[in-house]
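Q: Here's a chain of 159 amino acids. Please give me its 3D structure as tokens.
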Amino acid sequence: MTPSTQPNQPNLPDQAWQIHPQLLADSVPIIHLPVCAIRLLDDQRFPWVLLIPRKAGLQQWLDVPPAMQHQIIDEIQMVSTAMNTLFKPRKINLATIGNQVDQLHIHCVARHTLDEAWPNVVWGHGIRSPYSTLQRLAKANAIAALLKTLSAPNSTTAR
């Protein structure tokens, strides 16, 4: 039995996995959680994070093995908690659309009533406004630091 199929290790990332070129171009790395690569979408108009499961061949949620689905949901909860804590939004929007990029990725967007797209969806709204280098670094580091805290084995904040 290979490590990726052992019953006690359903969440191991796939060695053949690569990030889709469009996701690489549109975002910057934050941190790797046990299953997902977490990336900051480079658009300062909206606090926006992508969770990208590190398993080759996943195009939609139905492709994800059930045991991995549970871990991804835990990671979505963790990222949503971090976004809520850091950005104090009115709503957290979650979506797996994938019509333009055929690699499964989950959008987690912190929405405010004063953001330029409110109350409509952010997808396709206006022109992206990239972060400055310092803003991008500060935002990614803040999210990474909180995710490290939330994912700590004895963290009560994450649960």
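Q: Can you summarize the key feature?
A: The mean pLDDT is 90.
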